[in-house]
Fold these 3 entries.
Entry 1:
Amino acid sequence: MGYIEDRKRELEKYLPPLTRKPDFDLFWEQSLEESRRLPLGLEVKRLEDYPAEKVHVYDISYQGMENTRIYGWYLAPRTADGGRLPCVIQYHGFSGSRGMPSDHLFWTALGMAVLAVDCRGQGGITADHACYQEAYFDGPACRGILDPHEYYYRHVYLDSVRAVDAACAMEETDRDRIVLHGISQGGALVMAAAALDSRPAAALADVPGNSDLAVRVEGEYGSFGAAAAYLRRFPQHTDTAFGTLSYFDTMNLASRITSPVLCSVSLKDKTCPAECFFATYNRIESDKQIEIYPFCGHENAYSIQMEKKLVFLRHCNIIGSC
């Protein structure tokens, strides 16, 4: 047994107790029903003069939760027969954005459409119009942390599911070949959306966040260091805050995932520690694979992992042939 396999065997034993509350499933059933009742309100504007002549580029927006419009780019390679295309939905990392259309041309070179969406209130043009009962500091991970119905990531998870609605509404999209893709926070949103929506045909998540959240807060890892800072100031809210976070911990959602999954972690990652993600990965019951990079940090072995994603997508009949 080699070094990586030995480490993988150790990590596959990591199964911290689930923190699901008795109303966990009801909470998400009601949240999804609320989302479904909301008109999508999709608005699409084609960029007629975009210089990539073989690609249609659209500036899109749709209605997210809590009176917030979510902005994104939708790109689709021009096809001679006008047939429907597999579509990858791109979720960005913490403090990032939908980027620029050129950031996503890689996917169109594979013959895929791509929808890249903002997270509300982070680094893009999408605002966050949700109302929070208290003032919070140090970033989105603390917003609404005393009430799961109000919590920031409830809105973001549901916005992410509505991105699947938006992709399906575009005439170029093959609804049977939707792929979720993301890194870091984006990887967490891949896990959440795959758990809350059965439509995706594959899920690709690298160095994912939002897993084993009690440990993330205790260790002040990544964006959840803000929650630790909040609880230093308001220690009386510790149990309430941890109760809220339990609804958004992907380890509690993992058993709902039905699509094939390809993940990656890095063993020197101090932002989203590999062990934290294995609390989720070890509970995924669908077909799954994980790649471990022992000497990478949160930057991950991006190009090497991308090559493995291509093989995975071909194996899943998303691109090319089996």
Entry 2:
Amino acid sequence: MSWARIMTPLSGGEGDKAAVKAAALLAEPFGAELACVYTPADVADVMPWMGEGFLGGVQSTALESLKEAAAAGETKARAAVAACAYPKANFIALQTPVWAGLSAESRLSDVVVFTNDPPRGRGPLAEAFQQMVADEQRPVLIAREGFKTGGVVAVAWDGGKEASRAARLAMPLLEKASRVVILAAPKASSRSFDPARLQAYYAARGIASDVDILPDTGDAAPLLLYATKKADADVLVAGAFGHPRLQEFIFGGTTRSLLAADQPSLFLSH
């Protein structure tokens, strides 16, 4: 397996350089295209609440300000891509309707790369992250400080649909890893599962892996983070939002706990 197209949304802000760098690090081992997608605020989103007569006065000025900000952001985003030495990097500037364009680009990409802030609900790309993970159900990589390919990768496994999807979609990354560790916390799950099944699945596809059974009960997230650190893993592969999103928002959920941690980098799929 391989990846042929890696995508990263850009906002025209300070985080763009880090996003492009991380996405290039992911794309390079595969010789993949790097699609750097500028995702500005969409003028069409603000027009409905302006009401009739929006072309006059303050409303018209507000629209012009949005257009100017989008143009300035595009210039900065282009500069971030130009500063990247990766030869297969392409710049794409989305136009209205922005969200439809972002969806279309993600559907033709293998992985969507974000830095730390959008998954935590910060900055202009926070909504884009939610759209990619929950609505489009695209696999995403949250690249944190020190991200690299070719290191140790941990795979969180509970036998569920989300974990299964993430474990399968991450296989190109696992093929490049120096070591793969399957993390299972059966006492922290209501589901009955056998991590040896996933180990056999990987082995049949040429991926050697170890299994680490976590003996404790309670919240799975701290167990996974501890085991990931113990394994010196650079990336944790995990299913995202295994419960209804409203329930996860209210009660926290494993996904939110993983997003709140500073390390490791995360490969998530819903």
Entry 3:
Amino acid sequence: MSKRIYTYYWMTIPAVLLFFLFLTLPAIQGVYYSFTNYNGFGQTYDFIGLRNYINLFTDNVVGDAYWFTIKFAVVVTILVNIFSLMIALGLNASIRFRNFFRGIYFLPNILSVLIVGYIFNYLFSNVFTVWGQSLGINALSTNILGNESLAWLGVVIVAVWQGIALNTILYLAGLQTIPSDVYEASSLDGAGKWREFWSITFPLIAPFFTINMVLAMKNALMVFDQIVALTNGGPGRATQSISFLIYTGGFEGGEFAYQSANSVIYFIVIAIISILQIRFLQRREMDM
């Protein structure tokens, strides 16, 4: 037994040390620097207390980034879960080439976010515009990524297209857990498909709905790669997300300590939103 325990120690201790070294320690250092005026270079800095945190709440650039990120996250979360649930219901039915289509719909999840972003950047600027001009569709005739009021929709399209893949697989896993005799009993009672979905399917996959909502919201709040590949935060600052602002301001703008404070607030916001989501959705599960 003692030898087995030592084996577990040798398996877990290196993983814990690596996690602490590359994740926990940098996070602690970031919190420490958030109370200073450190610019990211050199060794000289002064402690300034809560000044960085106070300035964050009066910074219009930071406020715009939070507004864009939250608006983006809400829209993406809703669309991803609607489309992924619809696709999962279709892929769970008895159709031909079902496994083939399941693999096709999961394909976007294994592709690099940056590569997908650059591909869609080319499509928006060089393909869709040509189609729009040929078909006489004004909405497609110009690159929406260059439009300050529409650029965020281009980022939403890419994020939803790629985010659907994982959520579809999770919904499929949930649908597999529903016994078939439940549907047989409902059909004998004369229940229609719509009634069957709201009274049987959705309540029984409610835990998977909770997981998907939390994961989709968390991933959307942390949007970064799509911004880099599609708009680079532009036009102007129209699509500048919080994570993108932290990166550019901290590593390129000499605001290392200031953006460290921003990252602490950012972490707290994501944690609060996730906790509220879980509590609300789990309460709904019990009501169902």
